[in-house]
Specification:
Blueprint (H helix, E strand, L loop, with lengths): L13 H5 L27 H5 L7 E3 L5 H12 L6 H18 L8 E4 L4 H7 L3 H13 L8 E3 L11 H8 L3 E3 L1 H4 L3 E9 L3 H12 L4 E9 L1
Parallel strand pairs: 1-6, 2-5, 5-6
Antiparallel strand pairs: 3-4
Helix pairs in contact: 4-6
């Protein structure tokens, strides 16, 4: 793992800050993957055209690799909470970059972090997705509505499963509140997207609860 500098995010050296710059070009606004060769404007990839995701638009801060991956792992599993501000900045910057070319993101009325199961939350002590969303929510003047989406079933960690198993594992794991979502456009926030099974299930539940639209913002795309 890349050596992480101790202390607050301001101690990151210029090289480390440069390592957090996202890949060149525009990512697919459906799945968040960066095409090769790079494209100047966001356009749906062939996979998303063939099998659209349940959300409207998705924005990712960067690829889940290198220094960004190191920061996320340290923040999430080593309780390196002092790295949170740097990751918050990455997420907020990703949203602003996305909104510049995807104006529909400006219609978001509330932020909904992907929830943890209560046991997982008690073990970790914080929901990393909620914490990462705080800076963006404050700058945009958007309320964070964690209670709009609840994890009602404990599941096997998704990282231990393949794509097909993930979709089955996460089915029925979330419940959404119509009184908070009906008729509103929500921004669903998570730290990492791999296959997207968790985000898809969350978005489906939110839409079933009456959300007008769901857009997605993730810190990193695996």
């Amino acid at each position: 793992m890349t050596r992480l500098l101790p202390g607050l995010e301001s101690t990151l050296c210029p090289d480390c800050r440069a390592a957090l710059i996202p890949p060149e070009g525009a990512a697919c606004p459906g799945c968040g993957q960066w095409p090769k060769p790079p494209q100047a404007l966001p356009a749906l990839c062939a996979d998303c055209l063939e099998a659209p995701r349940p959300w409207g638009r998705l924005v990712a801060g960067g690829a889940y690799a290198g220094f960004l991956r190191d920061l996320i792992l340290a923040y999430k599993f080593e309780a390196r909470l002092e790295l949170g501000r740097q990751l918050q900045e990455c997420l907020a910057s990703a949203f602003e970059r996305g909104a510049a070319s995807l104006p529909e993101l400006g219609a978001c009325e509330l932020v909904v972090p992907v929830p943890l199961h209560p046991r997982r939350l008690a073990w970790r002590g914080y929901n990393q997705s909620r914490e990462l969303a705080r800076l963006l929510a404050r700058r945009r003047g958007l309320p964070i509505r964690q209670e709009a989406l609840a994890r009602v079933r404990r599941t096997v960690p998704q990282m231990e499963l393949d794509r097909a198993e993930r979709a089955v594992n996460i089915r029925g794991a979330f419940a959404a509140r119509a009184d908070l979502l009906a008729g509103r456009t929500a921004l669903l926030v998570d730290d990492i997207m791999t296959t997207g099974s968790t985000l898809e299930e969350c978005a489906r539940m939110m839409l079933a609860a009456g959300a007008a639209q769901v857009h997605v913002l993730v810190l990193a795309r695996a």
